[in-house]
Design a protein that fits this description.
The complex is a heterodimer of chains A (420) and B (158). Chain A is an alpha/beta fold. Chain A folds into 3 domains: 176 residues, FAD/NAD(P)-binding domain, CATH 3.50.50.60; 113 residues, FAD/NAD(P)-binding domain, CATH 3.50.50; 94 residues, Enolase-like, domain 1, CATH 3.30.390. Chain A is 25% helix and 29% strand. In chain A, the strands form 7 sheets. Chain A has a 5-stranded parallel β-sheet. A 5-stranded parallel β-sheet of chain A has the order 9-16-10-11-12. In chain A, strands 22-23-26-25-24 form a 5-stranded antiparallel β-sheet, with helices on both faces. In chain A, strand 13 and strand 14 form a beta hairpin. In chain A, helix 1 runs parallel beside helix 7 and helix 9 runs antiparallel to helix 10. Chain A starts with a strand and ends with a helix. The N and C termini of chain B lie far apart (32 Å). The longest helix of chain B has 11 residues. Chain B is globular, with a radius of gyration of 15 Å. In chain B, the strands form 4 sheets. A two-stranded antiparallel sheet of chain B has the order 1-8. The chains are: A alpha/beta (420), B alpha+beta (158). The interface between A and B is large, with 60 and 42 residues. Bound molecules: flavin-adenine dinucleotide (FAD) and iron/sulfur cluster (2 copies). One iron/sulfur cluster (SF4) binds next to helix 2 of chain B.
Amino acid sequence: MDYVIVGAGPAGVIAAETLAGLEPGADITLVSGEPEPPYSRMAIPYLLAEDIAEEGTHLRHTAGHYDARGIRVVHERVARLDPAARTLAFEGGGSRTYGKLLLATGAAPVRPPIPGMDLAKVKSCWTLADARQIIAGTKPGDRVVLMGAGFIGCIILEALVARKVKLTVIEMADRMVARMMDKTGGDMIGDWCRGQGVDVMTATRVTGIEEKVDGSLSLSLEGKEPVAADLVVCATGVRSNIGFLEGSGIDTGQGVLIDNYMATNLPDIYAAGDVAQGLDFSTGGHDVHAIQPTASEHGRVAARNMAGHRTAYRGSLVMNTLNTLGLISTSYGLWDGAEGGDEVVSLDRENARYLRLSFQGDVLVGALALGLTQHVGVLRGLIQTKVPLGKWKKVLQDDPHQIMTVYLACVQDATRRRAA
Amino acid sequence: MQKSLLIDPDKCTSCLQCEMACSFEHEGVFNPARSRIKIFEFEHGKRAVPYTCTQCAEAWCLHACPVEALVRNKTTGAVEVRDEICVGCKVCTIACPFGTVNYNPDSGKVIKCDLCGGDPQCAAACPTEAITYVDSAWTGYERMQAWAVKTDTKAATA
Ligand SMILES: Cc1cc2nc3c(=O)[nH]c(=O)nc-3n(C[C@H](O)[C@H](O)[C@H](O)COP(=O)(O)OP(=O)(O)OC[C@H]3O[C@@H](n4cnc5c(N)ncnc54)[C@H](O)[C@@H]3O)c2cc1C
Ligand code: SF4
Ligand code: SF4
């Protein structure tokens, strides 16, 4: 079979490796839209922080890794898909056919429609090329404004602080990481950052950016004094890369719509990762979950189905973990509560500790934590196994920090039942 | 024959010798807080359960890692952290549904059980044989894996 995978991020690479494992000798082409060897966007913050060199962002570290598996890596950008002719057209001219196709083109940053967003000193932080520009464009003491304090914004925040710039964070929402933290948690992260000398402005809208004669930037804010900057980093959200699919007849919403076998509406075309709008484990609906664990799971399940091993996906569970200047936060699933469900909260503002568990009946369906670093994963275990907590729910209601004990009790009960 | 840790909670007296041995092996200090194996007490201390990574076949941690810092040791079967590659993103800590990868803020990297390269110190230190290192076929390994399968996000092949 002639497999073509468009996109060499984690979803594409893991799919290619899985295919190679299932079908040794298969013809596998991995199309990367960027000049570098396949790399992980997630590692970019650590490059900015100078914890690692560029090689440290690469998805694989062994020389000849792809060749050894019969995976051909080509560097081209796909401009168009013609499903009737089973052909991909490249931006640089030329085309190629496919037997089975995986769309793993990820997502790309979007900027708000305000004046000045096209200035050279306004940067995104999404690719290695972006990272090089930010590294070249910042020195200790520079005034940097970070627009957007979502999940990605907050990860970049940490990296920019490590670069010793004078940082101002401007966020439109009423709190930081609004899509992974409730008001309590988001505000605690905001207070924590302010306490460490980062200027955080929430509920603040940038209305335009201007370059002054001295080369510095001025950001006008709605109802507030303007802010000066030497560089602006924009992290105001991302959108699935589906532009090149226009006119192909493929069904899209926010991303490429896929069924539980990662297949699109068109024959022999699958999608995975940030570009895919797939099954959500918690809601049963279809959503884009632009996170690393989803990209990795999508890639593996898509490859299995492409190779003819019909494998249903149970859906991706939203999971995020963030380190904001030493404060670790985590969220899973329906962290903001479930309809008709109940919850338990433990809050210690002074010590920046917060734990909120959401239940539906006696099943854990979501969790949110600040300052929890030990055995965090059991929250996933409890949520994803949908294990009935029975009498153990009461224990959690009395003290949500008993998650590990409750988890072990449930494992033991399950093991005993199986042994019996 | 690959070996694995066999844990028999009924024999555990909660003496913490395993935690001490583990932290000494990996961190050079006798400090249970730095141990990769943990004793959990419940029912007010009436029961204690030693708990660590089962080196599960699914290896959620390994697949979720964005930079290939987690690798399977072909000899011992253990999933090991390559410190020089780990960036400390903690994705593995939320991906492992057993909660057995932990972040170490001091090193900025994660720690997990590596079976001490094939000579697990916890098993050597346990005075009651609550932890033993035996051929995989004889352990509750399959049972643990059965639990792992339950946690699988993929349904059984249709
Ligand atoms: C700074 C930063 C920090 C992050 N931190 C985290 C984190 O802590 N935790 C987490 O879970 N997630 C994090 N993410 C998100 C995570 O990186 C993504 O979810 C993940 O990379 C998605 O993988 P993917 O393979 O779907 O897409 P991508 O990694 O985006 O890969 C897409 C690939 O497609 C290629 N491509 C795109 N268009 C075309 C085209 N037309 N033709 C050919 N090739 C094309 C691209 O060049 C690229 O190779 C972070 C992202 C960034 C940018
Ligand atoms: S750390 Fe967790 S996911 Fe990784 S091998 Fe061990 S039990 Fe499996
Ligand atoms: S913390 Fe380290 S080992 Fe874990 S996923 Fe991130 S890079 Fe990989």
